[in-house]
UniProtKB/TrEMBL annotation:
This is Glucosamine-6-phosphate deaminase. The chain holds residues 16 to 262 of 642 of the full protein. It comes from the Bacteria. It comes from Paraflavisolibacter caeni. Residues 11-229 form the Glucosamine/galactosamine-6-phosphate isomerase domain.
Length: 247
């Protein structure tokens, strides 16, 4: 299902509310909430709202385990552009999550170690019983995570090459496209599909055309987000601009 909100702030509040409800429900059951998280500009207000709920409403993250979708490669976790830094600044340093429960792909590993590391990342998700709720943004190439065009629907966590458009879109954060890493470690489409619930968010006009393709066009690896049409546990949260090309 696709739900269109007047603006990204209202939509983000609703997504944060869903996350909070999941955390509380799992708490009551004495279980951990396993969240799959995204970075980038799209989820920023979701994280702001979660931080607010932590500070004002007493929402605790003590029983929350997180797996982030991706990280640039190579990337020093301490660098300002790393997704580790992003998550710390936007969420983790502002709530009471146990640092041991945070998982973000490590962009600083030697190339030779990555395959085994990715298998381990996948295995860790499985050991926790899988992801309860996966949050996604979408790139203008149709990528989810960093699963660029050509990604297989059953792909797992792996090292990928970033699309040129993706690197162009990231150029501002890096002070020029040439500084954007060529590669990334990302959960696969298959990894994302195993989540029990998936929420994809998109805001603004510059996502309108890829949202139209993802929702209305044929399922194809040319637009990886179209694979989400095959899941019955996916919800699209859009603002009016991102939904503006839907028929
Ligand atoms: C980030 C991620 C990417 C972004 C996408 C949109 O962890 O997995 O798929 O969600 O590139 O980025 P923004 O939100 O910056 O438009």
């Amino acid at each position: 299902p696709v739900t269109v909100y007047p603006d990204q702030y209202l939509a983000s509040k609703e997504v944060a509310q869903r996350i909070a409800e999941l955390i509380k429900k799992k708490n009551e059951e004495g279980k951990k909430a396993i969240l799959g998280l995204a970075t980038g500009t799209t989820p920023i207000y979701v994280y702001k709202e979660l931080v607010r709920m932590h500070k004002e409403d007493g929402l605790s993250f003590k029983n929350v385990v997180t797996f982030n979708l991706d990280e640039y490669y190579p990337m020093n976790p301490a660098a300002v552009q790393s997704y580790v830094t992003f998550m710390n600044e936007n969420l983790f340093s502002k709530v009471d999550i146990d640092k041991n429960n945070i998982h973000i792909p490590d962009g600083s590993l030697p190339l030779d170690d990555i395959e085994e590391y990715c298998r381990g990342y996948e295995q860790k998700i499985n050991e926790y019983g899988g992801i309860d709720l996966q949050i996604l943004g979408i790139g203008r190439t149709g990528h989810i995570g960093f699963n660029e065009p050509g990604s297989a629907p059953n792909s797992g966590t792996r090292l990928v090459t970033l699309n040129d458009l993706t690197r162009r879109d990231a150029a501002r954060d890096f002070g020029g496209k040439s500084n954007v890493p060529m590669k990334a470690i990302t959960m696969g489409i298959g990894t994302i599909f195993k989540a029990r619930e998936i929420i994809l968010m998109a805001w603004s006009k510059h996502k309108a055309s890829i949202i139209k393709k993802s929702v209305e066009e044929e399922v194809s690896a040319d637009v990886p987000a179209t694979f989400l049409q095959l899941c019955d546990n996916v919800e699209f949260f859009l603002d009016e601009d991102a939904a503006s090309e839907l028929t």
